[in-house]
Predict the 3D structure of the following.
Amino acid sequence: MELFASPMACSLASHITALEAGLPVRVRFIENKKTDDGGDYYQISPKGYVPALRLDDGKILNEGPSVLQYLADRKPEAGLAPAWGTMERYELIDTLNYLSTELHKRIFYNMFNPNAAEPTKAAAKALFEPTFDHLSKRLTGRDYLVGDRFTVADAYLVTMLNWAAFLKVDLANWPTLAAYHQKHLKRPSVVQAMGVEMAERKRRAA
């Protein structure tokens, strides 16, 4: 399998998941809509964004929640997603949908989008407090978003909490979220994936 990614973007969650599961996934970074071998990324992902997961048979998944669950389901014993048919699995889907729509799309996407109008950015910024309040309440007294172990939902949230610093949003205002973030930043799969991706960012900046 090949994971097409952009360093420290939302595809980091899929990178973390692949490492966590010990899957033989080749990570290929894209830049300016070009693949690492100079190919046109739009030929792989017509929508042009990451992640894209190309399976061994050539089929492609191109939405974060589906890529995350596919990877998790390739190694069920890793426990990165609850079993299908359980209530916990639907809680995971519920959580991934919330993270992808409310936190990723409505807030971070609009804040980072250079083409977003200022009223759009202001509206997105205003959502930080209630959204982080909600997540803090959900994580009070627990270490994980779903169940009692690390899942793909945690890989996704940790990835997005990294972005707060770029927007000068101080997680110290939400001690529960800050503690959660710091705890999972020490997870070996997170350390390894972020190390690779930060090295790629530095290479590009050199």
